[in-house]
Protein 1
Amino acid sequence: MTDYFALLGQGRSPWLDPEELKQAFHARSLLGHPDVQSEDHDARKAEGAFAELNEAYQVLRDPKRRLHHLLTLEGSAVNAQAAAIPADLEALFPKIAELTQTADALAQRLAATANNLVRTLARPELTQTKVRLEKTLATLTQLHDSALTELKATRETWSADDVRNLYFRFSYLTRWMTQLKEKQLQLNV
């Protein structure tokens, strides 16, 4: 497995400064970009190296993917089946499930009808569901920001357990945020 931290000249750490990471990526990209290579063989080789460099950057700039990569490199595999919802997020799980189901049902009902009266009568429920989605997304965003702050604090000293816990926190938060944003899009059609 390629060490993406080494590929981009970064130390193995749960937290990486986004601007430093971006600068390291751009500096290495300029050196090995396929357009710079003149011969076909070199260009093909450079394309593969550039693709790997790009993948390294994409992984390391995303906290969840970076933590997973770090755990894998450190020999502390992530067991998704053993992942319990972090205790402070556990109360959100049924709320998000119910909100997702409500938004799905409403979106299906609205998509199934062309009747303007039915759409007009559903407007209060639609507005209420959109407000609930916005509020829940705001809560998740605050929790995500808190997790980023916690992640930043682990820059110097960290354990595999700390990293694993943060990985699961980011996993749930990003998954839920993505789901709720999809529901917002479905209801805006």
Note: DSSP finds eight helices and no strands in the chain.
Protein 2
Amino acid sequence: MTSHPNPYLAVKLSIIQERLRQSRYSFNLSMVATTVSVLITLTGAVALLSNQASEGTVTAACGLTASVRCIQMTKDANNRLDKILADLKDES
């Protein structure tokens, strides 16, 4: 970290950088989880179409539930980035 004449500004910058790092990791994790969830959902759909209804129903339901959670995680990561942007605009 570079030295700043104002220690408050240095702490604030450090917090903003950490928020940004966490948002990136959350977004990347949610993208991986969404991909896995889509694959699970497709597997469930194939099981449903091949007359394995009970297994297919459970698999599809699990996949859809995971998809909803992944979408929420992505939205939360984007909201954190929006908050960082708003904080930076307030400082200007």
Note: The longest helix spans residues 7-49.
Protein 3
Amino acid sequence: MNETYPTLRYCILGQGNYAVSMLLDNLQACFPKRDIEVEIIANLLEADNDSLIYPYATPGIVCVEKFHTDWTPDVNVPCLVGTFGRGRKAIFEFFAANYGINAEYYAISIHPTSTCSPTLHHGHGLYIGPLSVVGPQTHFGNFVAISRKVSVGHHTVLEDYVGLNPGVDVAGVCHLGKGVIIGAGAVVLDKVKIGEGSMIGAGSVVTKDIPAGVVAYGVPAKVIRSI
């Protein structure tokens, strides 16, 4: 037990074990000398959650799993969203509707190996994984999730719930609408706009604007179908 500093407490809402493992890794990296306790609050039954077969145990962090009906919220404990991708919006809305956990209760989680410009403007619930770079005068909405080795260029806007998978490179002066998901290794060139809810396939190169509500992929990326 660390007697110098009090134990840090967090609450992960929703249990996607892929995301939980990465959230715990971020916490351990940010606070390597602190004792950390985390409640993991599931909102899906075990039979409906195929991520549970994947481990998440992280040295130095004590975790307790609960189903949401057995949980009592504590406004003094910061929350994290326990999934990435499209599930982030669903989890936020579930706990907001059922427990009054609004956006301001969610902490940000930025891995210490990542570099963010001091002129980054961001909302609540931001996650940034290891070795990512965020340029100057960028604007992020609520619950943006940026995986490892991602680059976001200057004056780029990421609206609420945008998700960037590993190795994505978004150039400068781009605008990604709400809920846009960019697949691993994709490149978005300067000044491109991608409409709300669209998905870009892994390895794509986006050279021109993409409308809302579509799937696009390829080099260069082309619209394949509507969502």
Note: Helices lie at 17-30, 87-99.
Protein 4
Amino acid sequence: MSSSVAMLKEARAANFETMQAKVESILPAIEAASEESEALNRLSDTTFELLKANGLYSMLMPKELGGAELPHVDAMRLAERVAWAHGSAGWCVVVNNAVGGVLSVLLPDDGAREVFADGPDTMVAGNGVPRGFARKVEGGYLIKGHWAYGSGIHHAKWIHSGCFLTDEDGNMLKLANGAPRIVVTHHPRDTIVLKGNWDVLGLRATGSFDYTLKDGAELFVPDRCCYDFAVAEAQRGGKQSTLGLVGYTAWGHTSWALGVGRRMLDELAKLASKRVDAFGKMNEGGVFKFEFARAEAKYRSARAFIYQSWGGLADTFAHGGEASVEQIADIKLALRHIHDVISEVSTFAHRAARGASLHDGVMQRFYRDIHSGTQHILMADEIVQECGRVYLGAYGPNAKWEVFGVNG
């Protein structure tokens, strides 16, 4: 290891340890406010301000904009702890670091300065998956549409909206490979209205409402506040910023899954140490002990795969390299695998807990949150198929990962 790389790692370790101490100090308050947040259908103001004040919304933001610019693998350890305390709080943290993190490295200087004029912990919410339409005009785009899943949108200052690019007649424009052209736009919170439709099984406190533009009219968004989904290149943030939306979103959902999965097993162990029923003490039952050990093995194995994959990426970036197609396949597969595992072990925990998980409470909430998070489009079987294609070597020399698969 070169001396420069060693010094960089030492400095980052010190920064991480400081942030880790901050996170652990606020977890009790986040837990204490969780029921209020659930009732509000969004994070409580107390929780939001705690996360903001302690830099949890800007862990991945570049230092040029005032962010911590932590390696993804370090930020993951912090985000999973927030998700352990409250699933919805963890979700909002990873969404802002993914969505805001990507725009913070891709927007040109004048656009980044505008969005982050109040500092790096500016909340950005919305949906970059194209559900709207944009047509090019002088100096920017005119957009319209209806978007879903605006996690954290109540506290957002800026909105992140993906759009299919069209010509003046509304015909969708295509890339050379036939895929639609997509532009991701960013506009102030006061340009939208919420639909008030977040009536869901779990992740209720994320407030992931649908939204549309005010009066249904077209909105002008300047070029400086947009990036091209397919060709945007990192403007700042070092080598790790080259992961783009593909890697940042995988990081976010993986971090969240680690936290909520761990919490479900921890709650079951706590219950088992106290519960006595007609069959005896719960944690003394042979079948239960066997199945709990298997659940731990599944979770810990999935977690090890995750940190092996992300740790390898951190080393690659520290030495000035960029992620390979195979490395992205690893983090994509690890993402899906941990969701499969937490779905399985949380179902085991729910069944083993019997009535304790049936009623309102921590176990029921985490069970609902887990089985809501598994529904995200990034868990699609088709993405795992693309990982298989990579591992089989069935891709071209210039292949590149996009959000939903490999191009080439």
Note: The CA atoms of residues 28 and 247 lie 30 Å apart.
